[in-house]
Design a protein that fits this description.
Length: about 110
């Protein structure tokens, strides 16, 4: 069987899977750790590859690495924020099924 911690995660992933499927709307997913980071392993990485996809999600936003990235992961526009002390913020507009992103450094 799975350890208790994994069962809790599986229940949360089941809930999220249902939410993504039932709304019929495009979604924005926010997580602390990007799915390609070496700390995003096992069931958490499977979650991103199998549940979050370009059919149900238009934007993913992450932090953790403290290195700015504006990329595409699993067919989804993906942003990783810079460290907070680098004095910047982001303006994100959602238009239909697209995300428009602007990085503001000050």
């Amino acid at each position: 069987g799975y350890p208790r911690q994994d069962l809790d995660i599986l229940a949360k992933l089941d809930w999220l899977t249902d939410q993504l499927a039932e709304s019929g709307l495009p979604h924005v997913i926010l997580t602390h750790i990007p799915p390609w980071d070496n700390q995003m392993t096992g069931i958490n990485n499977l979650f991103f590859r199998n549940i979050v996809n370009d059919e149900n999600t238009i934007l993913c936003c992450h932090g953790h690495t403290h290195e700015y990235a504006d990329t595409c992961y699993n067919g989804i526009h993906t942003i990783v924020s810079e460290a907070i002390n680098d004095r910047e913020y982001y303006v994100i507009s959602l238009v239909g099924n697209q995300s428009i992103f602007k990085r503001i450094c000050y």
